[in-house]
Amino acid sequence: MELDDPGKEETEEDGPGRLAERLRWLYLFAFWSQFKPSEPFLVDYLIEEKGIGSEEVYQDVLDLFVYSRLPFLILVGFCAEMESCGYRAILVLGAASGVLTVLLTRFGVQMCLQQAAQFTVSAAFASRVAVPSLAFTLCLPSQFQEAIHTVKAVMLFSNCCASALGELLRDGDWVPLKVLFDLSALGQVLSLMCAACLPVPRASVATPTASAISNTLEEHLLPRSPTAARCFNLQEHPETIGSPKSACEVFKALVQDVWLSLWLRRVMWWTAWALAMNPIHGLTLTYWQSMVRSKHILKDHNGYLSACMYLAASVGGPQYD
To answer: Are 158 and 34 in contact (CB under 8 A)?
Structure first.
């Protein structure tokens, strides 16, 4: 389903060179934000280097990440729609949280500092949801699909490269585990620098306007669903036209967008699938290292396992036309 928005005409700033330059910074940020060679060995590091017990790791440390993810996601979604904040600022703050996370993990000697790192990493993870949204504002509608798939593939490929590098350095006994965290810190600093260089959205933002959404719904949804038409009618809600100003209007607009979107069957099923799979995915990624340790497997190959998973995801995803 395409949104027909005649107001999104190509301008001088939309030339191939300018578009490529804007997306290049976003791709660089996506790569370095995920480049953490230490990630597959976090549990090993906390147990072997920090002296934290195995049960304490997943009962008193990692569980804080699980519990704090949802509040940070809600906060990021709300702040990203505020005019005073926006997607770019969210990514800059998220990158700074990523740097702080690695520093706390690397140099923190107290349990409370390792626990604090779980909150900062939750903030960093939550900020990544703004990456596709920023991509929408940097390119033309005809480039949406390609840009989103590319940035997702870059993030997955970065995880693959970082995991493989960490495993190679660890297996060869070339560096101790703490040096892997030094490399992760370098990657996070580079991601912060790239975030600071991210361009502002196009002058004529490429995301659909309210009139375009209204026309599309009239054509594809509202004629077949009188209930949806009664529940929300853009013509009867002029306050939805234009950018919301207050926090109350932002929240109201978000609720209306979600409600309208869920009337589209494909969006509804995709949302249901995501709500079911994301918690499972998050719990597995959080606790799988602890489960390996619980089997008394001290010489693991977590890096190679992570690299294979992320590589398969990056090359096996949906293709664009």
So the answer is: yes
